[in-house]
Hints:
By secondary structure, this protein is α/β, with parallel strands linked by helices.
Amino acid sequence: MAPPDPESLRLLVLVGELGSIGAAAAELRISQPSASKRLSRLERQLALPLVERTRQGCTLTPAGTMVCDWARQVLAHVDGLMNGVRALRAQHEAKLRVAASMTIAEYLAPRWISRLRATLPDVPLELDVANSLAVAEAVRHGHADLGFIETPVPPEGVSVRFVTRDRMVVVAPPEHPWARLRRPLTATELAATPLIVREHGSGTRETLHRALVGVGAEPVTPLLELRSTTAVRNSVVAGAGPAVLSVLAVATDLAEQRLVDVPATGLDLHRPLHAVWRAGLQLTGPAAALLAIAMRTPETGSAG
């Protein structure tokens, strides 16, 4: 005997509750003749009389009452199943919202996203580019599912995972006096020179500031403050002045001699890159897949 379909069971439950096939049919938005045929088919399928029909309406037989009670339990499980499926579908169809700080967004995230697309081609993805402070805030307030930041000290109030390590370099245009130095630049000289820098809240700027302060060299007022890594790099290439940038941002310029890598001594310009997400949540699905891809990134300057 094949099991009855859920809609026939739902019809039987409504007949028991409303006392009328017509009322039950109206509730399910089917015609009364269709409802009567479905009930008759259910009775034949179960080989039991389920509904007693009278001119005043209809009532369930004792067997119908017992089947109705079991049907309610089955329908509760069916409804739970469908709610779960809808939730899974919504999770699958929802876009993955990623926020990344400037250097990561421009030089690492495109590679990560391309690898994610190779395995999950149908996942909609939105990438928001901001400084590290803004990325952490977006994650903290639920505006991004996953963030990537460059600050040397991870923010509070979020879950944090180390991704890789980045190397920053002092760069200057070829005509700058630093390009002709025969010795490494000292931390004191770097701190005493107005540089082209990123805005406050940027991981690049915070890394440089902490590195200088850590060796007792307070940086002077910047020469120029800009809101993107590309703008800083373009200004240095144009000859506006020196800067400290990720090697990711200037590797091509160094190779093609548009910029000069100025060695610096007594200063650690390495910085960790971190993934962040909302505290207390466990990453699943595409967000977890993207994090796994990011964590396979070699340190900047390494092969791969």
